[in-house]
Every structure is written in structure tokens, then in C-alpha cells.
Amino acid sequence: MTARDRHPRPRHPAHPHPVPGPPAAPADRSRLPAHSDPGANEGAAPFPELMAEVMSGAERFGHRQHVHLTWLAVRRCGTAAAIHLVSDGIQGVARYAGAPQKYNATVSRAWVELVGHHAGQSNAADFGTFTGQHPALLDKKLLSHFYRSSTLASIAARTSWVEPDLAPFPWQHKDK
């Protein structure tokens, strides 16, 4: 009998990952993105609601579902608020699943900023259209264009925001 058998956790019926409770205190995110913030006035969208919407038609929570959840959060809350919402939610899921070490603050924020940047340049009303316009976002190795793998694996990146060390994000000036 495994520890999981002795202490089963409730799971969302549509996916195998547990749905977290309230999010934990956010990691240090003092430097918010400088690009546009679409949807900033649309109000909050609690993480469990976004997760349920994304998983309603999915069998597993893979990279596409992560991007979909992030796109929904950005559209409903704006990029700055989505950074906190998505990062805290994913950190809560990792902690609830007994794998808090899998959470990476830089990876979470970088994906929200990338999706937010592209959402700000898109008028797509649905996720399929959005990903059709920006198919690179479905490549889970996209961050390797901006970061060394050793940087993303570092303790600093896992616990707080680290700027890209290979190339700037599309909205950043190269002379910074």
C-alpha cells in the first residue's frame, strides 16, 4: 500500500491532477511586465474555475492546457494579475500533489508574459484561433530560446523571477 492509497486526495473528475485549495502567498514578483495588459479591468477569475473550464474537454493537463489556462487568465484578469493567479495556482497544485519542487517561479511567469504579449496582439475570440495565430506557444521548449536550461533549473529561477539570459522577450529592448 502506497502513501497515496492511504491518503487519497480528491481530484477533478475531468483530469488526474488535484484541484488546489486557496493559493499560497505569491513568490517575489516585484518587476511586472512592461507590455500591454489586456483584460485588466475584467475582474478576477479564480484558478479552480479556470482549471475546470480548461479541463472540461481534456483528458489530461498537458502543455496545451497550461497555455489555455494562461490565455483565459490573461484575457479575464490582464497579464499582471494573471502572473499571480496562474503562478499561485500552479504552485498550489504542485504542493497539493506532493511535488512542490516541480514548481518554477520563472517558468510560470515567463509563460504568462509570453501568452500575455501575444494575447495583446490578437483579437482571437477562442483559444483555437489564438493558437492558430501563435503556434509557437504550443511548443513547450519555447523558453529555451530565452533561457539556458541551467538557468531555469537554478534555485533562483525556481523561487523567484529571473530575467532571460539568452535572448530578450519580444517586447523587451535589446539595448537594456
Summarize the helices and strands and which ones pair or pack.
Elements: H1 3-6, H2 47-55, H3 63-77, H4 79-96, H5 105-120, H6 127-133, H7 149-153, H8 155-159
Helix pairs in contact: 2-3, 3-4, 3-5, 4-5
Could you walk me through the main structural features you see in this protein, from its secondary elements to its overall organization?
The chain has 176 residues and is mainly alpha-helical. It has one domain (42-176). It contains eight helices and no strands. The protein is globular and about 35 Å long. Residues 1-43 have low confidence and may be disordered.
| Total number of helices | 8
- From the spread of the alpha carbons, the general shape counts as globular
Number of strands: 0
Between the first and last Cα atoms, what is the distance in angstroms? 55 Å
Summarize the main sheet. Answer: none
Uncertain runs are: 1-43
The Cα radius of gyration reads 16 Å
- Helix-strand makeup class: mainly alpha
Give the total of domains: 1
Helical content band: 40-55%
Overall pLDDT level: 80
Tell me the fraction of residues in β-strands, as a range: under 5%
Order of helices and strands: HHHHHHHH
Tell me briefly what this model is.
The protein is an all-alpha fold and 176 residues long. The chain contains 8 helices and no strands. The chain has one domain.
Q: Key features?
A:
disordered N terminus, mainly alpha, 176 residues, 8 helices, 0% strand
